[in-house]
Design a protein that fits this description.
The complex is a heterodimer of chains A (366) and B (626).
Chain A (H helix, E strand, L loop, with lengths): L3 H5 L3 H22 L7 H20 L5 H24 L1 E3 L2 E7 L2 E3 L1 H20 L7 H20 L3 H17 L4 H21 L3 H11 L8 H14 L11 H4 L11 H34 L3 H25 L17 H20 L5
Antiparallel strand pairs in A: 1-2, 2-3
Chain B lengths: L9 H32 L1 H9 L3 E6 L6 E2 L5 E14 L6 H12 L3 H8 L10 E5 L4 H9 L7 E11 L6 H4 L2 E3 L2 H6 L10 E3 L2 H5 L1 H5 L3 E7 L5 E8 L6 E4 L3 H11 L4 E6 L6 E7 L4 H6 L3 H9 L8 H4 L9 H11 L8 E3 L2 E4 L2 E4 L7 E3 L1 H6 L3 H11 L1 H10 L21 H8 L8 H5 L9 H12 L3 E3 L4 E5 L5 E4 L4 E4 L4 H16 L6 H4 L7 E7 L25 E8 L6 E7 L5 H17 L6 H11 L2
Parallel strand pairs in B: 2-10
Antiparallel strand pairs in B: 1-8, 2-3, 3-4, 3-5, 6-7, 8-9, 10-18, 11-12, 11-23, 13-16, 14-15, 17-20, 18-19, 21-22, 22-23
Helix pairs in contact in B: 10-23, 14-16, 14-17
Classes of the chains: A mainly alpha (366), B alpha+beta (626).
């Protein structure tokens, strides 16, 4: 059953990048959480999740990624059911329901939805992709497939994840190409309807909220305060950084959520421009490697799925890094492999596992 | 053309992947450029800002709306309170600073240390409140020694001030610190621990208008915690001002009249429902709630048998006594049980089975018709009429008159009273209604309970020709600039179920109560230059049981707590009434002698005051008020 060639073609580079980012993440997390002396409990948990994610990854190598094509619909349905369950039975935390408690584990179905949307769209597009691009009629089914998890995640509400799901789906759709005329008319339609909605449908306070979302400076006591503290942390790192455990912004709890969404500020403060660019380059390498795998894959499903997974990592890096540097709205999107959080780590590792699976099997001619 | 519809193959995908990579590279260039800008170009400035962690958030509290009476007289304002806080991070060395502070404030060091210990060291940049509302002398001492008190800050915060001590306390209410339960409920949007919110009275009911919206500032501070510059500000929105329907002059006069007594008095305009005065006695000091009650103060208020904390006008439930005869009379006339010519003979008592029911006048009233029965408050007449009517029919009319249900006034905790029926008794006591029980109910002495506010609304309805008004305290809401946001309107909650003829008979009788020598209130209420109608009531606290040793036949010798409650309800002038009044004095003795003069003085104050200064005052108010 186990093909020896698989071990031969194992993607050591991808594993290396992943482990490096994971290690870097732990070092920063330690700095963000340590109050001196005791090894932070949350670091231990992060290590456990990382190991768990790697185990799932290794186990999944036994099966070909083509199984995902066959099982795509079931996986998608399962994910939708989980999203519905979370609305009814989910644990309430700070005004939203995001977590399902199953025995000793808490699962975040919206994280799983990121992977399932990649699988189901890859399944659909791989059968129908043509060089001229999709027409509106071809896109009806994918639109429904995207809308269902999107709406369910918005209802939780978890706007950050909903945004990532839409961006993944949009990237995949644009990748397999939308017919030129349709693509242009979609852009024009958006350009027309957005101002109309703005002028006629939104109430004053809703406009205010969106404006604050786009420009946190409008809310200097809330989001704006977080952003300025984050910018001070990043900027004060200067070229070489203040040094490991020497970040003052972090130490005095000036940074909000310093171990989750704002972890990059801790990195940038302590390791400076040199450290931040190194980590960004690691991400670039990871994303580039994902594109390379798509490049090397010989079937449509594998290619499109690789692009989807890669876009998932890309968008999260882009939104998170853009946010902490004050380029983007304040959205709760974690930095893959570095931010604290089990669901995010495991989801990213599953995604990377799929990439490796595609990578290993692209050499096998069946 | 055939190639155009070609299905995608891996060569085509490779072409598209090149595009993808280009896009990714472009984004990363932007990210790195931004990093370079923040860390290398602007890095020095951010390093300087981070050195002292010198960006702080300061909360700015909105000033609470003021409260005025109907003529624009200021009742509640805000005064500055100087609050002393310390920022631990800046106050190095902490112990030494605290010791110095304690010396200037003349308090033990321990007391101040207890405020700061237990605080989270992570939040050492957040100010810890040491003492609210420090006096001027302490403030002066601290300002002078500011240079060697690092990290010590004095914030000026507006604090509620009730201008006339103990005046209108039940009506205006008071503020208190928000508690965990209220914070959780989410009704108080934008509130945080330590905030003061309305807890009682108008302050509570109109909290959301009075409060306004909090603002804040992002400021840069120097090493000692002093503000260097303001980076950004969110403006506060001050709370709205409130004008009440209360007439301050009448309110104060009524308070003086009730001073030393336990009881309640209220007045309203019978044609609109505007409450002109609302007094519950004894009162309490609202300012003490704002600055913080001591345990002893709180215990004294809570344990006082006269219940100073309860608003007796709306919360106090009393037997209505003879004031209830107004309802019994009209119900009997309306049902045809009696008419204007029906007479009963009153020998001073009425025997039903083997029980004897007494009239208050031991010698009896002789032949009595309805007008004489009301004027002289003959009990026997109403025993007999009430017996013929039956308890349930009487209850139906009482409920239709608005009794047994809250009046809907804009105050919390309003009592609904009790109108007994046969079914009610069966439900609560498990035994059927006894015929003899109807008799005391007919004269308001049975199970019946009413609030003074309910009696006031009923009296107003009789006065205005039958319309049950919803009493209200809010006249209008205005912004700080004086723009009217909301103007309250007079509302009806029902109509008395009586014909004009019935009402006329009763009104004529009520006029005689105060204007004919036989009337129960003539000697205590009648004055020449005013035309007052009314009804007395004397509510027995215990039934006249034989063998009760504490009970003294001679009322003047009776123990204080066994004396009856004194009621008086009135309206004036009898034609086109402008004011209706309900007064109750707990254990005051006779309605006519105890409650009557209070009502008379209130009417005099309201109707005979020199030219109503309302308009002048309104005009005067705007330039001067904040």
């Amino acid at each position: 059953m186990f093909d020896r060639r698989l071990a031969e073609y194992f993607d050591w580079v991808l594993l290396g990048i992943t482990m490096t980012l994971g290690a870097v993440g732990l070092v920063i997390l330690y700095s963000a959480l340590s109050t001196g002396g005791v090894f932070p409990h949350m670091c231990t948990k992060q290590i456990i999740w990382f190991s768990g994610g790697l185990s799932i990854m290794v186990f999944s190598f036994l099966f070909s990624y083509k199984m995902l094509d066959r099982w795509g619909v079931s996986i998608y349905m399962f994910s939708i059911i989980a999203l519905i369950c979370v609305l009814f039975f989910g644990r309430h935390v700070a005004g939203s329901r995001r977590w399902l408690v199953i025995g000793p584990m808490t699962v975040q179905p919206s994280e799983i939805a990121k992977i399932t949307i990649v699988i189901i769209l890859a399944k659909y597009y791989s059968k129908r992709a043509i060089i001229s691009g999709f027409t509106l009629r071809d896109l009806v089914v994918p639109l429904i497939l995207i809308a269902m998890p999107f709406m369910l995640i918005v209802m939780q509400p978890d706007l950050g994840t909903a945004l990532v799901v839409v961006l993944i789906a949009a990237s995949m759709t644009v990748f397999v190409k939308i017919e030129k005329r349709l693509f242009l008319s979609m852009i024009v339609a958006c350009g027309v309807t957005v101002p109309l909605i703005w002028m006629f449908f939104l109430k004053g306070y809703q406009k205010q909220r969106i404006l604050t979302f786009l420009n946190p400076d409008r809310d200097p006591l809330g989001a704006g305060y977080h952003i300025i503290q984050s910018k001070i942390a990043i900027g004060s790192g200067m070229f070489t950084g203040k040094g490991f455990l020497k970040g003052t912004q972090n130490a005095l709890s000036f940074l909000p959520e310093q171990h989750t969404d704002f972890i990059l500020s801790v990195l940038a403060e302590e390791w400076g421009f040199v450290g931040s660019v190194t980590v960004l380059l690691l991400y670039l390498l990871l994303i580039g490697w994902g594109v390379k795998i798509a490049y090397g894959c010989r079937d449509s499903f594998g290619t499109i799925m690789s692009v989807g997974i890669t876009s998932m990592i890309f968008w999260q890096v882009f939104i998170n890094v853009g946010m902490v540097m004050g380029l983007m709205p304040v959205v709760g999107v974690p930095l893959p492999l570095i931010s604290y959080g089990g669901s995010s780590v495991v989801t990213t590792l599953i995604g990377i596992g799929i990439l490796m699976n595609v990578s290993m099997r692209s050499f096998i001619v069946e | 053309m055939s190639s155009y519809y070609r299905t995608a193959d891996s060569d085509w995908y490779k072409q598209r992947l090149n595009g993808v990579m280009l896009w990714v590279m472009a984004v990363f260039v932007v990210l790195v450029a931004r990093l370079f800008y923040l860390q290398v170009i602007e890095g020095g400035e951010y390093r300087r800002l981070s050195e002292n962690n010198c960006i702080r958030l300061q909360s700015l509290d909105a000033s609470r709306g003021l409260i005025f009476d109907r003529t624009g007289k200021l009742l509640v304002e805000n005064r500055p309170s100087f609050d002393l806080s310390i920022i631990l991070k800046d106050a190095k060395p902490v112990e030494e600073t605290i010791e110095k502070l304690a010396e200037y404030m003349n308090v033990p060091v321990r007391e101040l240390m207890s405020r700061i210990s237990g605080g989270n060291s992570c939040l050492s940049y957040k100010p810890v409140l040491l003492k609210r509302d420090i006096g001027r002398d302490v403030l002066a001492a601290i300002e002078v020694h500011k240079f060697d008190l690092p990290g010590v800050i004095v914030n000026v915060k507006p604090i509620r001030h009730y201008i006339k001590k103990q005046s209108a306390a039940h009506l205006l209410g008071y503020l208190g610190e928000i508690n965990a339960k209220e914070l959780k409920r989410g009704v108080y949007k934008g509130c945080k621990p330590g905030d003061f919110i309305g807890k009682f009275g108008v302050e509570k009911v109109y909290e959301r208008y009075l409060r306004g919206e909090r603002g804040g500032r992002q400021v840069e501070v120097d090493v000692t915690g002093q503000m260097v510059r303001v980076l950004k500000t969110v403006e506060t929105r001050p709370g709205h001002n409130i004008l009440l329907t209360i007439d301050q002059e009448l309110q104060q006069k009524t308070e003086e009249l009730l001073k030393g007594l336990t009881g309640a008095a209220a007045a309203m305009n019978p044609s609109t429902g505007q409450v002109l005065a609302l007094v519950s006695s004894p009162s309490f000091d609202q300012n003490a709630f704002v600055t913080g009650l001591s345990h002893k103060q709180w215990r004294d208020l809570r344990d006082n048998p006269a219940k100073p904390m309860s608003n007796k006008v709306v919360q106090g439930e009393y037997p209505p006594a003879s004031t209830y005869k107004i309802v019994t009379a009209m119900a009997c006339l309306e049902e045809g049980v009696i008419d204007e010519t029906t007479t009963f003979f009153c020998p001073g008592h009425y025997r039903l089975g083997n029980r004897v029911f007494r009239c208050w006048k031991r010698g009896g009233h002789g032949d009595v018709d309805i007008v004489k029965a009301l004027t002289e408050s003959c009990d026997v007449f109403f025993y007999r009429a009430g017996e013929m009517l039956g308890v349930d029919r009487l209850a139906w009319y009482a409920v239709a008159c608005g009794l047994g249900a809250p009046t809907g006034i804009d105050l919390d905790h309003e009592g609904k009273g009790l109108i007994p029926t046969a079914a009610w008794k069966k439900k609560h006591f498990g035994v059927p209604w006894q015929r003899g029980e109807t008799l005391p109910v007919a004269i308001g002495q049975g199970f019946n309970l009413v609030t003074p506010m309910q009696m006031l609304v009923l009296t107003s309805a009789v006065a205005n020709g039958g319309i049950i008004k919803k009493p209200f305290l809010l006249k209008s809401i205005e912004t700080v600039e004086g723009t009217v946001v909301y103007k309250n309107q007079s509302r009806n909650t029902g109509k008395l179920p009586f014909s004009i003829e019935t009402m006329e008979i009763v009104k004529k009788s009520l006029w005689k109560v105060a204007n004919e020598k036989e009337g129960t209130a003539y000697w205590h209420v009648h004055i020449n230059d005013l035309d007052i109608s009314g009804k007395t009531g004397t509510a027995q606290v215990v039934s006249r049981k034989r063998g009760d040793t504490a009970y003294e036949e001679d009322e003047s010798k009776r123990a204080e707590h066994l004396k009856p409650h004194a009621w008086f309800v009135a309206y004036a002038p009898s034609e086109k009434p402008e004011i209706a009044i309900a007064v109750i004095v707990e254990h005051g003795g006779h309605g006519s002698s105890s409650a009557g003069p209070i009502a008379r003085e209130m009417i005099k104050t309201y109707l005979l005051k020199e030219t109503p200064p309302a308009e002048n005052l309104m005009a005067e108010r705007h330039p001067g008020y904040r």
